[in-house]
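User: Hey, quick favor. My workstation is busy. Could you predict this chain's structure for me?
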Amino acid sequence: MLLLQINFFDLINTQTSFLASFTSYSQKKLLLVVAFIYIFIRSIAYGIDFRRKKNYFLFVALFLISWLAVLLATVSTYGQPVIKTFFVSYYFLLIVLYFPFSEAISSKESWINLMKIFTNFAFILSLIKIFQSIFISKFGKVIFFMSNNDYNTATSMRFVKLGFTRMPSSSDFIFVALLLIIFSIVSGLNLFNRWKYTLYIGVYVAFIFLVGQTRSYIVMTMLVLLLFILWFINRHFGRDLVILTLGILTIPVLYFMVKFIINIIFGNSSRGISLSIRQEAMRYYLQNISLHKWFSIGFARDDVFPNLVHNKHVDIIGNVYSYNYDDVGMIGLIAQYGWLGVFNILVYFVTTVSLFIKSHSKYLFLVVFVLIFGSWISTSLFDPQRILYLPLLLVLMDSISDGTLEVDFHGGNRRV
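Assistant: No problem, here it is.
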């Protein structure tokens, strides 16, 4: 499933091939098939462990019921065929992986194995993308296959930073890998030795800043690294120095973060326009939250209802603009599910906060929260590109809650 998520390191061409409609950056049909095969084989081989506590059972069950309700309501409202409506929304079903993952990844050893695979894959992917970015920027040559979005963005040469042209599609996977590797250090899991940790983190950060250039992931990377630094100071020098460091650094860090964010938003005119379009999209989708009383746009086909789904319009200059669900974070979910989506988000939020309050390893939750809540703004975990990570993160929070994974403030991980 991880290999499908990264398109086998982009060694398979899905730009114009038949595969593009089944497996690509935003198409997850093959991934869903593999997921259901995995669930079927695992249930036969191991059965279902009803004793294993699943804190997000209510949320996941409610979400799946909501998905079915919106699907049937969409078919009834728009007169769409059931099959075609299903293929608009099928990727939401990947959240069902929470149930087998909660049993398969239920120990420290299983988390170590998964994190090693994930971070090794991300390291290889980062190197491929970094070299590809340099070759396109310096020589105009494409070596590896890539998504259409990456190809168009990279070859346009509109976003070149320090000799690296932008290729954003892998940012999701690589940031999750960065989060997991920082998490492994803070929780005292021995994935690698010190030099390998340093190398991997350095390559991930280089990709996110220079090649991915995705605003939300740059900000989240800064927050994760700040949490890591504070943990390191607390572990080696005590809590008093952490408080002193926070007191000294709060104002300058906030100043430079705000200055940096303003620069990446307004430093390039087209990215400033992109931000403005997203704000307009948020207003449009929220205005339609009660379009069909309890649900909003639903799973309307964008090839049949393009104006409703994307609100295509022309400005006074003649430029054509359109909106997309995956540009507006969690509002994209509300744009489809309406008030039912708001209720699901509320259950999701309340469950997560209650686990945090009860947990004895709140610092680990803070590390995960960077992605869980940081993604609400523009890179929602409910989008097809990222939904595979959601069940993993839900199980990760379960493992923190039940004490399987605990914060290490006492030098449990001697290699770091």
